[in-house]
Amino acid sequence: MPLLCCLTKVDRSLIDGGAGLGERNSKGAALARNLIGTANRLSHLGHRFSGEPRGLFDEYCARCYPTLDAREASSIWRSAQKDNPTATLTDEALENCIKSWQRQQSINSQKVQTNDSKRATVTGDSGKSGDSYKRNY
Length: 137
What we know:
Elements: H1 9-17, H2 24-44, H3 53-63, H4 70-82, H5 91-123
Helix pairs in contact: 1-3, 2-3, 2-4
């Protein structure tokens, strides 16, 4: 499950779009604390996830305007690590995010299987010999 799925809409929006001059550091610090805290909480609850918290933070930094340079980003990250980082979402909300992601994966899997089945029927690609129409000229 992607770590991104267990973040608030605001945090996902920051990762997708960054922040502008005058708010990059404060929003970046809050995001870093939540990324670290959420990753720690998911691990504590026994949930495996994909996506590194620092990698997501670096995506945020790259999308800020102007971009946050590596030195400034590292400073914000180190500060967040020392600042008792916690998840923004409650344990119950995190569990609901996980269930929602799992449900969506199941739906997507069913759609793929249905589409594959329809494709085999439409193309006559069932794997059986002699099931497709052949023209004899």
